[in-house]
Amino acid sequence: MSTATVRSVSERLSAAGTANALELRGVTKRFGALAALTDVTITVKPGERRAVLGSNGAGKTTLFNCVTGDFLPTSGTIRLFGEDVTNFPAHERIRRGLRRTYQISLLFTGLTVFDNVYLACRGVSRGRFSMLRPRKGDTLVQSAYELIEAVHLSDIAQIKVSELSYGQQRQLEIALALAGAPRFVLFDEPAAGLSPKERAELVEILTNLPSHIGYIIIEHDMDVALRVAETVSMMHNGRIFKEGLPSEIESDPEVQELYLGGGHG
């Protein structure tokens, strides 16, 4: 990332003081009689990398939807860098440095890798409504190429997205999520459908993100999640039932019995 980008991020982090990156307190989400989330409380520090694990239906994606503003919680509070954003719409949370990837790819397949990343950078910039073409030396162009390099796609920057492999499209989605110097990112199953080689590359990309960018990753692949996370929260039936270090979660008998059939090793 450029020096100007890093400086901007540093200034924003300083302004946030010692506030936690994300705080959920008693968050509950009901759909009629169904409780998808029940009294979820999570605290994530600035720069922290956390995995949220659990079987299908545990409430992980609903949790993300509440954090991003796609759903408003039925009760409870959500704070982002100390600010109560519980009732904020999604775009206001984006303005405050929150980003997200989705399980299903959301890309402009008829455009190139560079075009997709440039548009993402333009979309969160002050000049996003300008009709002028970017000029040589445009800082957004530079930022786009830096993000493309960060996700290992420099060699195919001018290739149309429709020609990329599924794994390369997932890497591109990470670049889009990093546009505009985010402070916190939610990664929704980024390893789903990837080959072993692509998963190894994903681990390298996430591990090498700038230290000021914290994130939560939802992931069914325990090997990926436990390699890129510093802390782990386990969900079951819409609740957080266990938290700890990756080594603690991996060796926990209850976790092994409930999610891994007792045979993970």
Automatic annotation (TrEMBL):
The keyword Repeat does not apply. InterPro entries: AAA+_ATPase, ABC_AA/LPS_Transport, ABC_transporter-like_ATP-bd, P-loop_NTPase. Pfam families: ABC_tran. One of its GO terms (molecular function) is ATP binding. Keywords: ATP-binding, Nucleotide-binding, Transport. The keyword Cytoplasm does not apply. SMART domains: AAA. It comes from the Bacteria. Residues 22-262 form the ABC transporter domain. This is ABC transporter ATP-binding protein. It comes from Aquibaculum arenosum.
